[in-house]
Structures are given as structure tokens and as C-alpha cells.
Specification:
9-stranded parallel beta sheet, 9 helices
């Protein structure tokens, strides 16, 4: 086997993600690590960053609402292992549960570093994790703390270093001297460990503290007592290390992640008119020269092609918008919008909608599970369901595709270059052939052959004098009498 190049990035041997806590300050029935942030749970963001470091093994420590957390992991991160912390007896105890769980599964620790992370830190990046491992490897430390500098470090444990930069201790706020309280470098609660150091120190942890728990931070003191080196890696962006404990912090982290994602897209050539109101989930694909207007959202399963314009006031869920298309003030779920097509405003595209190139779905139109061919138009005030529409056809205003008989959905097939008159009702199953027309106001219940016109309405009957007889004292009667008088007067002078 070829050995990796010496300058290749160091990989973690094991990443342990702590996700067993109840998160009571969230005041929620949902496990804290499952609260979503831009379409992905907190835990999912952490694991997505972890995956990019290519660790040999990842284990998530579960406890509170473990069934829901395990179900999420099985769906989204099936290669991730889990370990159970039945009683939450501290971070050190959680890591010991992780190692014991791995041993029970026959997984042995290698020589590579063990990384311990919190499951509620959605802003942690793969670059920071890679740098943490690199610092740990370069300094030959037994333990490396991920730290950060904060303008206001109050409440955080401070990193106390010696003259050589080695970490002497982590001093909690309540225990800090006035001089130590001035230190801005804080402990994130995330670490890199040498496996042997970690295993040895975990076996020596005690619960001799105010909380009666096993603290992972005590491993640092044990390592120092053993004469080993403890270092720290300072995160470039202090926002990355913040955990989420309440809804306000959740909202703040969401805004920070939004800004990070939007900046990356703009640097790559996407125009985002108002970054503060554009919500783009990680995983969304935006081509250079795409434009995202204000108050618009694009989920992880959507893509926007070059030159396409989305918004303002538009939501894309699992929707593809091809090059040069425009979608204005619309909600699109599971749709494909072809190149150069136009959608909106106030349009609802439901799953299964396919709009061909240069097609149009206009104002106050709902489309469900239908294919609308190239250059065809449904301009306004219509419902299209379970339909196939050919090329170059026009569906008049207020047309209803009556696809549901109360028990089953039925299809409607419209050919090429068809003209459906305004206020038509097409009662499925029905087909309208190529080049055919329907008269406005028709209820079409039978197929219309190619080139024919379908007329399905009663003949108009005018009953003269009805208003004068039935509404003799109304404004309508007065207006009609005046109009009729003027007409009679005009005829006498001819």
C-alpha cells in the first residue's frame, strides 16, 4: 500500500460527538441537537463538517430522546456509530461511554488523535477541525484544546498559558483571579487527545466537584501531572465555537450561517440582492450569474441555473430552475422549471410540476403533477392537475382541470398548439387533440378531436324588458329606461 504524502492533512482516528444532554433551556419537547438551522439539525451541521475531515470512525453519544436522535442518524448518517449514556454524569463520563461502546462493537483505537466535539455547535467548520488536528500533531501534545478569543469572555473558562505557549490550566470564571479574568482566550469544550492519554486519564476521573460529575476538562490537569504537554489551537472565527442553549442563540447562529453561505455564493459569482433576507440552505446549487432577489429561500435540494432570477418573495423546495428562467413571488415544491421559462407572481407549483423551456405559469395558478410543454402557457387564475400539455398551447384564464372524482385522480391530455378558452372546465379523463380549441365557458366532458372546437354551454337567451318588470323601482331600471329613451330619441331623428 502506498504511504500517504508527508504533507497530507492529518486525519482523526476517532471523532466523538456529545449529544446526550436534555437541553432544558431550549424549553422544547424536541431534543436540542435535533433543532433545525437552515434545514438541517444542529447535530447534522456538526457531522457534515466532521465528514470532510475523513475520520476513521465517528461515534455520537446519545441519551435524552435517543430513539429520535438514532432515527435521524440512521437516515442521514448511516455510517456513524452511537453509544448510549444512560445517565448524564458529565462530559468525561460521556466520552468513556463512547469508548466502551466502541470496544463492545470490536472497534479498537488507533494511533491517530481522538477529537471530542459538542453536538450543539453548528458553526464549527471542517477547516477548523483540520487545523486542530494539525496543531495537535505538529506540537506533539497529549491534549490540544480548541480555543477562541472573545471580546467579552465573561462566563467562559480561560486558557492560561506559560511563556512557551503551552496550556497550564483552564480556569473557570468563578475561580479566576483578577489577572486571569482579563484573559480573552476561552475554552470551547472541544479537544484533540492522544488515545493513550485519554484512556488513562478517563480511568482516573473523579466526581469530586460541585456538580458531582466526571469533567472532561480534568483530563488536562491529569496530563500535566503526568508530565505531558497540553497545547491549544485558536479558532480563526470565534463564532464557530458557540454552542446553542436557547432559541435566541439558535436564531443568532442561523443568521451567522446564512451570512457565511451567502458570502460563499456571492464570491462564486451569484448575485444576492439583499443577503439579509436571502435564506439559502447548505447543499443548494447556484450557478454563476444566478440572481436571488430579496425575501427568497432556496432549500438544500434545489438548484438555480446561470442567468436565472429567483424572487423577490419566492421559496424553492426541491426545485430546479434552469438557465435564464424567472420565478417571481411564488412557492415551488418539487418542480422543474425549464430554461427561459417564467413563473409567477403568486403561483403555487406542487410536486411533479414540469414546465418546459420558454413556458409560462402566471398569476394565481396552481399546478400539480403536470407536464407543460415547451412554449406553452397557463397565464392566470387556473388549476392544472394530473395533466400533460403539449408544445405551444395556451390555457385560458380561470380554466379548471377537474381531475378528482371523489375517489380517484384522472388524467387530462392536451395536444400541441391547443387553445383552451377562458373559464373552461376540463372534466378528466379527457383529451384535446392537436390544434383544437374549446369555446370560452365550456364544460368539456368528451374528447375534442384534433382541429375541432369543443363547445359545451347553453345558448344565450335575452329576455327584453325583464328589469322594468321585475325591478321597477331600482337604479338598474332607471338606467335602462334612460338608455332606451336615448336610443328611441336617436332613431326618430334619422
Amino acid at each position: 500500500m502506498t504511504e500517504p504524502a508527508s504533507d497530507a492533512p492529518a486525519r482523526p482516528g476517532l471523532v466523538v460527538v456529545l449529544a446526550a444532554g436534555a437541553g432544558t433551556r431550549m424549553k422544547s419537547d424536541l431534543a436540542k441537537v435535533l433543532h433545525p438551522i437552515l434545514g438541517r439539525p444542529l447535530l447534522g451541521h456538526v457531522l457534515a463538517s466532521v465528514a470532510q475531515t475523513q475520520p476513521h470512525n465517528v461515534v455520537v453519544v446519545v441519551g435524552h430522546q435517543r430513539d429520535q436522535v438514532e432515527q435521524y442518524l440512521a437516515q442521514e448518517f448511516p455510517s456513524v456509530r452511537t453509544a448510549v449514556q444512560v445517565e448524564q454524569n458529565g462530559t468525561g463520563h460521556a466520552v468513556r461511554c463512547a469508548l466502551e461502546g466502541l470496544a463492545a462493537q470490536g472497534v479498537e483505537l488507533g494511533a491517530e488523535p481522538v477529537i471530542v466535539l459538542a453536538g450543539d455547535t453548528p458553526l464549527i467548520s471542517s477547516d477548523t477541525l483540520t487545523d486542530l488536528v494539525a496543531t495537535h500533531t505538529r506540537t506533539h501534545a497529549a491534549v490540544t484544546v480548541l480555543s477562541a478569543e472573545l471580546n467579552d469572555p465573561f462566563g467562559y473558562g480561560r486558557i492560561v498559558r506559560d511563556a512557551d505557549g503551552d496550556v497550564l490550566a483552564i480556569v473557570e470564571q468563578k475561580d479566576a483571579t483578577s489577572q486571569q479574568a482579563q484573559i480573552n482566550e476561552i475554552n470551547s469544550g472541544m479537544f484533540a487527545f492522544n488515545p493513550d492519554t485519554l484512556v488513562s486519564a478517563l480511568a482516573r476521573l473523579t466526581t469530586d466537584n460541585s456538580q458531582g460529575e466526571e469533567y472532561l476538562t480534568d483530563v488536562l490537569a491529569i496530563a500535566r501531572e503526568d508530565g505531558l504537554s497540553v497545547s491549544a489551537h485558536k479558532a480563526n472565527d470565534p463564532d464557530e465555537v458557540h454552542g446553542i442553549n436557547n432559541r435566541a442563540q439558535l436564531a443568532a447562529a442561523t443568521a451567522l450561517l446564512r451570512d457565511r453561505i451567502n458570502t460563499a455564493h456571492m464570491v462564486s459569482g451569484v448575485t444576492i440582492v439583499d443577503p439579509a433576507t436571502a435564506w439559502i440552505e447548505p447543499g443548494a446549487v447556484l450557478a454563476p450569474d444566478a440572481v436571488i432577489e430579496r425575501n427568497s429561500a432556496v432549500d438544500a435540494h434545489s438548484s438555480v441555473g446561470a442567468g436565472a432570477v429567483v424572487g423577490p418573495d419566492t421559496t424553492l423546495l426541491g426545485t430546479t430552475v434552469e438557465a435564464g428562467a424567472r420565478v417571481v413571488r411564488s412557492h415551488c415544491d418539487g418542480a422543474l422549471i425549464g430554461s427561459g421559462a417564467n413563473v409567477g407572481p403568486f403561483t403555487f407549483l406542487r410536486p411533479g410540476t414540469i414546465l418546459g423551456a420558454r413556458g409560462k405559469i402566471g398569476a394565481f395558478v396552481e399546478v400539480k403533477k403536470s407536464t407543460i410543454g415547451e412554449g406553452s402557457k397557463v397565464p392566470h387564475l387556473s388549476y392544472v392537475g394530473d395533466a400533460t400539455i403539449g408544445e405551444g398551447s395556451n390555457i385560458g384564464a380561470a380554466t379548471i382541470f377537474a381531475n378528482y372524482d371523489g375517489e380517484k385522480k384522472h388524467p387530462t391530455v392536451i395536444g400541441n398548439h391547443v387553445r383552451v378558452g377562458s373559464d373552461s372546465i376540463l372534466v378528466a379523463p379527457v383529451a384535446i387533440g392537436d390544434g383544437a380549441y374549446t369555446a370560452a365557458g365550456s364544460v368539456i366532458t368528451e374528447d375534442v378531436p384534433a382541429g375541432a372546437i369543443g363547445i359545451a354551454r347553453g345558448r344565450q337567451v335575452n329576455v327584453n324588458g325583464w328589469v322594468a318588470r321585475s325591478r321597477p323601482n331600482s337604479d338598474s331600471a332607471s338606467s335602462a329606461a334612460a338608455a332606451n329613451g336615448a336610443n328611441d330619441s336617436g332613431s326618430e331623428h334619422e
